[in-house]
Structure formats: structure tokens, C-alpha cells
Amino acid sequence: MDGKEIIEHEAIIKDIKEYTYEAEIIAIAGCASCQLKRVCSVSDIKEKTIIVQKENKKAINVGDKVTIYIAESKGFKAVFLGYILPFLFVLTTLIVVLFLTGNDGIAGIASITILAPYYLILYLLKDKIEKNYKFRIKE
Asked: Is the sign of the CA dihedral 119, 84, 131, 66 positive or negative?
């Protein structure tokens, strides 16, 4: 992939649509691969469904094992939009409102309330954002 770092996962094709594949990956936390997992009560294995664009290069059928990938930079962008930017909004709002009002309660409520319009905007722009996060099947 042009020398760029990639994030890849093994997946199984669960459904085939006209322009996309529906692939299921198994997300395993670090402790799930530990040798002591049998005696540990923590198990963090989740199945996730990923939509992958068809590229018509290879015949793929339901049940096939494939490797899907996305550029690592896209992962960092997602983390920024989902976690870092809202944290900065909360922190900035908390400091500004606390400075202006001197009231901890109002500052706390304002800093949490700022998340509602932020996530509403993300939701409204989800189709535009999704276009930048396309998974592909590794050949």
C-alpha cells in the first residue's frame, strides 16, 4: 500500500451486496490471547461487522476468509474525532465557563452539555465522514 502503514484484520465474509461485502472480524483484547485467560474472569472478545467496498478484482464468496485493511492514518483520525477533540472541547469549556462564572456546577454542566451538539454534528456528517474510511480486501 504505497509504503504507508496499515491496520489489518482477518475477517470472514458474511454477506455480499451489489457494491459491498459485509465482513465480520473478531476483535480480541490483549488479555484474551494470554495463556492465563482460562483462570481469568475478564474476556473481551467481540465480533464486529465491517462494510468493505467491492473492487471486482477477485471472486469472493460468503464464508471466505480474507484480510481487510485500512490506512493507519485513518485510525488516528477516527481516534481524534471520537476522543481527543471532544475531550478538548470539554476541557476548554470547563476552563472558560469556570473563569467567567466562578461556579463549579455551571462549568461542569456546560462542559458536559457541549458534547451534545458536537456528537449531533458528527452524526449529521456521518455519511461524509464514512467516505474517508473505506476498508479494502488485501490481495
From this structure: negative
Which neighbouring-strand residues pair with 46? 27
Q: What is the model's pTM? A: 0.62
Cell of 84: 481527543
The full set of domain ranges for the chain reads: 6-137
Cα separation, 5 vs 1, in Å, equals: 8
Residue 125 CB-half CA count within 13 A: 9
Give yes or no for a contact between 97 and 15, defined as CB atoms under 8 angstroms apart.
Answer: no
Inter-residue contact 115 to 86 (CB < 8 Å): yes
pLDDT digits (tens, 9 = 90+) for 84-112: 999 999 999 999 999 999 999 999 999 99
Q: What cell numbers appear for 49 in the block?
A: 461487522
- Read off the pLDDT band of 41 (50, 70, 90): very low
Domain 6-137 has CATH 2.40.50: yes
Taking a C-beta distance cutoff of 8 angstroms, is the pair 34, 40 a contact? yes
Rounded mean pLDDT, 73-89: 89
Question: With contact defined as beta carbons under 8 Å apart, do 14 and 22 qualify?
Answer: yes
